[in-house]
Design a protein that fits this description.
Layout lengths: L2 E6 L3 H13 L4 E7 L2 H10 L4 E4 L8 H10 L8 E5 L4 H9 L3 E4 L4 H12 L5
Parallel strand pairs: 1-2, 1-3, 3-4, 4-5
């Protein structure tokens, strides 16, 4: 199953690092889209067929958490798999997001972290 993925992070360098980790993960990648904040990410979500969204928490314009809560409140996107990628240190905040159905990858990461979390949230079978 080829995975169409959206990477939402305000740092272009971080998005490139995520793309590299995805490439090295061994996942069957389809199209990987990029957005610099939650509002841009929402526009991509509205026009593309995605299998998973990778979100930074702290971004300008619309944070990853705001976008995630918006996605969960809409019938069209409430089951869209989301994985947060962050250096967030608040265990309560991380726990709340995970209870809402998100996966979480803590910075720094490995390609295997991406593989494991994406497989977990999408329910994809290991190749």
């Amino acid at each position: 199953m080829r995975l169409n993925i959206l990477v939402v992070d305000d740092s272009g360098v971080m998005r490139k690092m995520v793309l590299r980790a995805l490439t090295e993960s061994g996942l069957d990648l389809g199209t990987v889209f990029e957005a610099a904040n939650g509002r841009e990410g929402l526009a991509v979500i509205e026009r593309e067929k995605l299998d998973v969204v990778l979100l930074d928490i702290h971004m300008p314009v619309m944070t990853g958490e705001e976008l995630f809560r918006l996605l969960r409140s809409s019938p069209k996107t409430k089951t869209l798999p989301v994985v947060f990628i962050s250096s967030e240190s608040s265990s309560a905040r991380i726990e709340t997001l995970m209870e809402m159905g998100a996966g979480f990858i803590h910075k720094p990461w490995t390609a295997e972290d991406f593989r494991a979390q994406i497989l977990a949230v999408t329910g994809a079978v290991r190749e």
